[in-house]
Amino acid sequence: MLSVDVAKRVGGFDLACRFDSGPGIAVVVGPSGAGKSLLLRLVAGIERPDRGRILFDGDPLVDTTRGLWTTPQDRRVGMVFQDSLLLPHRTVLENVALAVRKRKRRDRRTDATRWLDEVDAAAWADRHPHQLSGGQAQRVALARALAGEPRILLLDEPFNALDPPVRHRLGMLVVDLVRRWNVPTLFVTHDAAEAFLLADEIHVVEGGSVTQSGAPGDVRIEGPFRTS
Amino acid sequence: MWAPLWLSLKITACATALVAVTGIGLGYLLARREFPGRELVDAIASAPIVMPPTVLGYYLLVMVGRNSPIGRTWEAVFGSPLVFSWQGAVLAASVASFPFCLRSVRAAVEAVDRRYEDVGRVMGLPAWRVAVQITLPLARRGIMAGVALAFARALGDFGTTVMVAGNIPGRTQTMPIAVYDAVQAFEYDRAGTLAMVLLAVAVLVLIAVRRLERTVA
What 3-state class would DSSP assign to A35? Predict the structure, then answer.
């Protein structure tokens, strides 16, 4: 489904990653500073690789040798960051509605309500982001990412700042949503336990490159990661 | 008494509207778009801050005077000269107050966390919608402060306006010029009243802006 082979140099850091991922949840796990977030930003089209290509279902999102580039707007990806990054001047419903790719305002609001329902957040539709807890805000961010009906879902350490029980619940919510909506997902985390809990497949990224790829049973992670 | 006040409000309102639209537009571009000569554009647009108002007015007079290409074009289209008209006073007040709005907008937009804009682009919003629906609302406090500053500067302008539009009672004599005129004529009571009204208007507007800032924050 997703085929990545890219290189990029940022400051003194070299990223050179190569992996293929299938349907379900592919967890990209590694120590902080390993280049995981950069990898997601490349897939989203927020950053351009120095060289390489990213294909989705054979369709090039970027290919530097052929000079191909798909803008982030046209990639149809949904993304959730560590901070929810909900727009503070809009209500929860308006935040989600902004991501719905439909012309009519009423259709956008209807869809947004449905997506809020999906993540059990419909009760907060009229609140503003500052009135939400961290976990609530990430639920809404998840609804917003799905509201664009993405071809790929990109989650960049989405539950890092949350307490373990909330984190576990939201992890299970992601597993459930990905199954039901059948949207291939890249989930970035530095937490090996979270990786094994959620993953259909795991890609270990260390020092800017993929060191292991495989099913959770085939990947070995020794101890907690050292931060590089 | 009321003619200069009415004229001042009309000129200041027009100048503030003009400055808000152009200042927000250019301020956004300077903060978020790379283009050749970007810093030169910023420096030229900001120059009025460091120029004496009369010098700025002199340059404007040269640029839009009756013998200049701009002045001739204006006269051909509207039938009367731009200089020594209330529209000329709007131009003077606008150019003098523009950099205050521009700098404030640029700084406010630069302070917006770019990741919000990334979210917008990934959502599929075209660049103009990212700017209008994400970046500018996030920068709104700085933008409003800039517009308020521009309003204050435009309302109080003397030197630039008097060079470009002169001192014609009922046509281009704004409040600050009327105060000067009254003092020159030893009419201190009139000067005092005018000054008090001008001060009251300025304070009222700034309070209103403060209120507005708080309600949208």
Answer: coil
